[in-house]
């Protein structure tokens, strides 16, 4: 059943990734179509150019500062953690630049209208889908805020330290440079984290959508007889010894079962696509996160607790922890859903 007012099928939302699409525009990954006004396409083109130019400068300067970091082991560790984070982000960005068609295929298969089911009560498949979408949206904006705060905190901490320790507007007579006051190396006055947040948000969204589809399939299988009776407009409390006594009901149940099997086959195919696209990136992220945890804790342990650098390191640590946690949490929910399905 389609609701013509909002074009929803059986109460499902048409787009599970609405929050991610907002981040996609901010991240410079949106591709405006020809139906968009020319001025908007041109404006977004310059915005994307600005984003990628600054990202390229950030990437180059991150490596050019290596010699400076060799003078101070804590700074070297902090720098190496940021380089790992940057490299991981570029790998993630590459997935959406070069593998966008595969991502779109996975998303389309997991939201296929042919595999949306009517609700038999107020807690049916449509409501399950909407609740999972709301949970995914909260995770997306949480990760986005955390990533943005990492960049903001770095500039705030640097500004606080400079105003406390450097009188005037220059470094003359202090025997220091701006590198001595920056918790992350090299930073530009611009946050480049949104591209990487889009990856994590979409990846978690795909995992959560996959999970809820498993739960919906399990629910539909358990209600297959009731759904067949409703479709045939037979009494729901109809009792017969064997379904063969009612060939019409038996045929309908076979049709429903065939449709469910096709849905499961689609999910198995989506599972293979997800593993093929994200497995090695997730492995790299896990290994990189372990090093970043260690480097953040080491640097935080040798600076004063009241310093702004301590705050910046802890916030970076929390952001990396949340980044890894949401992926592990979403993947674990799939395992739980699979166990419940059995």
UniProtKB/TrEMBL annotation:
One of its GO terms (biological process) is signal transduction. It is a multi-pass membrane protein. Its main location: membrane. Pfam families: 7tm_6. GO terms for cellular component: plasma membrane. GO terms for molecular function: odorant binding; olfactory receptor activity. The chain crosses the membrane at residues 42-65, 77-98, 139-162, 202-224, 277-304, 310-332. This is Odorant receptor.
């Amino acid at each position: 059943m389609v609701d013509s007012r909002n074009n929803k099928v059986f109460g499902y939302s048409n787009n599970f990734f609405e929050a991610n699409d907002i981040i996609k525009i901010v991240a410079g990954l949106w591709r405006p179509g020809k139906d968009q006004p020319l001025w908007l396409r041109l404006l977004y083109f310059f915005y994307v150019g600005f984003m990628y130019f600054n990202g390229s400068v950030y990437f180059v300067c991150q490596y050019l500062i290596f010699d400076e970091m060799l003078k101070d082991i804590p700074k070297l560790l902090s720098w190496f953690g940021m380089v790992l984070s940057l490299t991981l982000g570029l790998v993630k960005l590459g997935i959406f630049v070069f593998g966008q068609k595969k991502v779109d295929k996975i998303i389309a298969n997991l939201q296929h209208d042919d595999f949306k089911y009517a609700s038999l009560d107020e807690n049916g498949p449509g409501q399950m889908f909407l609740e999972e979408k709301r949970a995914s949206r909260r995770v997306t904006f949480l990760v986005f805020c955390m990533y943005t705060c990492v960049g903001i905190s770095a500039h705030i901490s640097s500004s606080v330290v400079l105003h406390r320790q450097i009188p005037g507007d220059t470094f003359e007579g202090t025997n220091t440079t701006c590198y001595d006051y920056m918790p992350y190396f090299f930073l530009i006055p611009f946050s480049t984290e949104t591209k990487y947040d889009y990856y994590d948000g979409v990846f978690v969204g795909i995992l959560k959508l996959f999970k809820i589809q498993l739960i919906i399939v399990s629910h539909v299988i358990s209600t297959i007889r009731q759904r067949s009776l409703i479709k045939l407009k037979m009494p729901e409390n109809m009792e017969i010894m064997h379904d063969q006594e009612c060939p019409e009901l038996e045929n309908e149940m076979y049709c429903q079962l065939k449709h469910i099997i096709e849905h499961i086959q689609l999910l198995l195919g989506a599972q293979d696509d997800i593993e093929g696209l994200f497995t090695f990136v997730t492995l790299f992220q896990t290994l990189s996160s372990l090093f970043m945890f260690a480097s953040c804790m080491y640097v935080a342990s040798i600076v004063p607790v009241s310093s702004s650098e301590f705050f910046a390191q802890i916030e970076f640590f929390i952001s990396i922890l949340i980044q890894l946690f949401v992926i592990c949490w979403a993947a674990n929910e799939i395992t739980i859903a699979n166990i419940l399905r059995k």
